[in-house]
Write a structure and sequence with these properties.
The complex is a heterodimer. Helix content of chain A is 39%, strand content 11%. Chain A has a 7-stranded mixed sheet with strand order 1-7-6-5-4-2-3. Chain A has 2 domains: 4-247, no CATH class; 259-379, no CATH class. Chain A has helices spanning 28-41, 86-92, 107-118, 140-150, 153-165, 182-185, 214-219, 229-256, 260-266, 275-279, 299-309, 318-329, 338-342, 349-364, and strands at residues 16-21, 47-54, 59-66, 101-105, 127-132, 197-200, 208-213. Chain B is α/β, with parallel strands linked by helices. Chain B is built from 6 helices and 4 strands, in the order H-E-H-E-H-E-H-E-H-H. In chain B, helix 2 (23-32) packs across helix 5 (118-135).
């Protein structure tokens, strides 16, 4: 855990250089494909974990690719996020440095990964982290519906991506054909400075902006360039508008939460199916307390409780489950919103967790997933605080 | 929620998680020294205040405890070096969480009581009972039973989720 190698490369952002990859015929997918091919050829990576189209472009899924021949249909700027890939990256991460794995992940996934490293559940020794500047993702089932109805999934995907990454529309309006996931709408941490390589098409029209270490740029034969103004502007605008929306969403939430009845009301439709827990990248226990015998009691005990209380909500302890998960996760919640996307009942879990997480993190002066150098708040303490 | 007479007759139930090395000994000492303290408290001995996972505190509140006390060693005196510092962090998180959810964080107390301080234990018990009497019964009990517990007084509010549909 404490080894030097287990840390993400901590090159500061000002020690990195920018390079612009020009696209032929405006096809950014070909451009990134060529870039990944270069990474393979130069031996920077041996494998690549990257979102790739499946089912004729109906959806995208993370794929572990070996070699240049299998790069067809990869799209690092995937408009859907089937799962927070931190969990997948934790599976491919290893102490064995012989085989380098490039992993294409978003800021929220990098943050979750860093939290997993702090928990001793992930290893970064063999990884090349390729971050992307992420403008947001859509609910996977809504996306599939949209592109299927359009008739040409890839064309639709390109159109939506270009719109959103140019900052033209943010897909947040009530009447938009499809809306960003609620957590993406309020995300203001969509770019991560600890990635080894960062790919961005924010405000880049048809080109791709690469941020990487000087040495690596030379090895790949990339010309360095200045950061384009249009990129900076879109980044800044997006950050401001999302921060505003974030704050107002949290304020609204706090206004509404006045008693335990409000909490119970939000969770009224929950059946404790554990989907939110399965989806959560940082729900860290190997075996959850709530999945043990303690929470599937025998008949005698249930009847005894019913005797005592008069009425007993079944399945039992739904509120306890969520309040405890909130307590355990709040300090580390990176706001990927997977809990809400997975919830079959549409419970606004992401808002709930992030609003509480925001309060807790501010109090602890902790930003989850910022750097592996920081310790988990509950694993450390200060004498005076 | 409850009128004045209810409050006068109301006896709060307190669940106290006491550290084996200090607060529990202090409670013991109060007993052997015949220092009478309120009988509202139900003590649970734990090996360290740092071992009290908030799940137990939340469970106590949901099941109708009016207040929860976590008693640990004076800072710097932890039998396990740093357990009470960690307990302080856990309580900090729990308090922030309860506040963010609009719940009453003042029903959860964290106090440092050394093994020799039976008098302090007694004082804290009196203080806590008084504070909880002023608050009245814990409204967090049986929250799913909204129809039964709050008739007409409470209206469901929608928390907007921009999920669409």
């Amino acid at each position: 855990m404490e080894t030097e190698n287990n840390k993400l490369a901590t090159w500061r952002i000002d020690m990195k250089v920018y390079s612009i990859l020009k696209s032929q015929n405006g096809d950014i997918f070909e451009t990134v494909k060529a870039f990944f091919a270069r990474l393979f050829e130069e031996g920077i990576i041996d494998y690549l974990l990257v979102p790739q189209r499946i089912s004729n472009g109906k959806t995208l899924t993370q794929t572990l690719i070996k070699g240049v021949d299998n790069l067809e249909g990869v799209n690092p700027f995937s408009p859907v996020m089937a799962i927070n890939s931190a969990k997948l990256v934790a599976q491919v991460g290893s102490v064995n440095k012989d085989k380098k794995v490039g992993v294409v992940i978003r800021a929220c996934e990098i943050r979750a990964l860093i939290e997993l490293v702090k928990l001793g559940q992930a290893n970064l020794d063999n990884l090349v982290i390729i971050g992307i500047d992420c403008a947001g993702t859509f609910e996977i089932e809504q996306w599939a519906k949209l592109v299927e109805e359009s008739g040409d999934p890839v064309a639709k995907e390109t159109e939506v991506l270009k719109d959103i990454y140019a900052g033209k529309t943010d897909y947040q309006e009530e009447d938009a054909p499809i809306r960003l996931r609620s957590s993406c709408q309020i995300c203001n941490y969509f770019t991560h400075d600890k990635a080894d390589i960062t790919l961005s098409i924010l405000g880049m029209e048809d080109d791709v902006l690469v941020t990487l270490e000087q040495e690596l740029a030379e090895k790949l034969g990339l010309e360095t360039a200045d950061e384009p103004m249009s990129h900076k502007d879109v980044l800044e605008d997006m950050k401001n508008s999302r921060t505003y929306k974030r704050e107002s969403t949290f304020d609204e939430f706090r206004d509404k939460m006045q008693s335990m009845n409000d909490m119970a009301d939000i969770l009224a439709t929950c059946t404790r199916c554990y989907a939110c827990q399965t989806a959560c990248p940082i729900c860290y226990c190997r075996v959850c307390f709530f999945r043990t015998e303690t929470f599937s009691p025998e008949s005698d005990r249930l009847l005894r409780w019913a005797d005592k209380e008069g009425s007993l909500r079944m399945p039992t302890e739904i509120l306890l489950y969520h309040l405890t998960r909130l307590n355990h996760i709040a300090a580390s919640c990176i706001g990927c919103g997977m809990c809400e996307s997975y919830c079959a009942r549409g419970i606004p879990l992401s808002t709930l967790f992030q609003a509480v997480g925001d309060e807790v993190q501010k109090k602890l002066e902790y930003v989850p997933g910022r750097s592996v150098d920081e310790e988990l708040p509950v694993a450390t303490f200060k004498r005076e605080e | 929620m409850s009128n004045q007479t209810d409050k006068d007759n109301f006896e709060p139930k307190i669940v106290a998680f006491l550290c084996h090395w200090c607060s529990y000994k202090a409670a013991d000492l109060a007993g052997t020294a015949r220092l009478a303290y309120p009988t509202n408290v139900r003590t649970i001995r734990t090996m360290c205040s740092g071992a009290v996972d908030p799940v137990y505190i939340i469970k106590a509140l949901l099941d109708g405890a009016d207040g929860v006390l976590v008693g640990g060693c004076v800072l710097g005196d932890c039998h396990y070096q740093s357990g009470n510092y960690k307990a302080r962090r856990k309580m900090n998180i729990l308090h922030s969480q309860l506040r963010a959810l609009g719940l009453d964080e003042d029903r959860v107390w964290l106090r440092w009581i050394s093994a020799s301080d039976g008098v302090l234990f007694r004082e804290i018990m009196f203080e806590m009972v008084e504070a909880l009497k002023a608050k009245g019964p814990n409204p967090m009990k049986h929250p799913w039973d909204i129809w039964k517990t709050v008739k007409g007084g409470w209206k469901p509010k929608t928390i907007n989720s921009p999920r669409g549909e």
